[in-house]
Amino acid sequence: MNTVSLTDVSTYLPGEPIAADYYAPSVESSPAGDGELSRVMFRTPKFRHHVGADETAVDMIERAAQGLIDRHGRDTIEGVDILITHTQVPDMPFYGAGGGIAHRLGMRPSWVLDLHNGGCAAFVLGLNVARKLLASGEGRCALVAIAQNAAGQVFDQPGVRLKAQAAIPGDGAAVGLVTLSDESPILGIECRTYGEYAGDMTLAVDPPRKWWQPGVGEGCIGFTETKIAKVLARGNRQVPEVAMTVCDRIGLHTNDIDLLVTNQPNRVFLRNWREALELPAGRHRDTFDECGNLFGAGIPVNLDHAISDGQVKAGDVVMMAAFAHAGDFAGAAAVRWGGR
């Protein structure tokens, strides 16, 4: 197989940080925060960012891509052969953002793929697809673009904001430049679909209706104590499993991982994952208290921060791992970082 690299990442966080006290009165009075598992699941981060009122997913990706343009030149981005995107809340429900992103960035890619099943593990899934296509001769350069924009839209609705779950998400966007090269080689990837859990994450509306039907109720995630218990159990198991599988494949012990980068639903998951992989906190990057739960943008945002402040250095092995939704998908990818 031709060597494929995650050459660089660039990210964008919208607006000024929003502090926890924005939610404090709502969380304290929220019925959703009454159960013990809810308190574990929805322990509030100190800050998060919200997408602007008129800011689209395409706007977010364009702003995230500016770092790549500055470092690699506009010609590199305009010459992308494969564009892979994931948007948490599509600007239009009938199609993804791929076409709009390609146009905004001046691309004429041979492949434009909008992925929706990847959820919080979408960056890993995007790397997997990009790697397969580039290695098979479908181009020399791919862009994986992730927009998380649910916090300032879905979770900031007046009624939903009263729920404990609303204080956890934050918005952000990220792009990853994937090239046919040996600069920062992708060492191994594992993606798994757990179809039996598909549909366990639901949209709750009171009074009940389908998402597209008119009505007065606001939609939010349908969490119950039973569902939370299942999500906690699945997430605690799946993320270490896929990371260990990649380690076995590339001949690396988990405690030799130089940097672990995961999605970041809450502090409990973050602690349990690094303990399962026998890693100290200093080798597991997260921005939870600065950004909250960034969903699919969490991995590339955390990686970008680690690169920018020197936490990850040339030659280090970075393990990226995440699970999605209520546990219907999980993925891990290892990269030997070549430096920026």
TrEMBL record:
InterPro entries: ACP_syn_III_C (IPR013747), ACP_syn_III_N (IPR013751), Thiolase-like (IPR016039). It holds the Pfam family ACP_syn_III_C. Residues 117-195 form the Beta-ketoacyl-[acyl-carrier-protein] synthase III N-terminal domain. Keywords: Acyltransferase, Transferase. Residues 247-337 form the Beta-ketoacyl-[acyl-carrier-protein] synthase III C-terminal domain. It comes from the Bacteria. This is 3-oxoacyl-ACP synthase. It comes from Mycobacterium paragordonae.
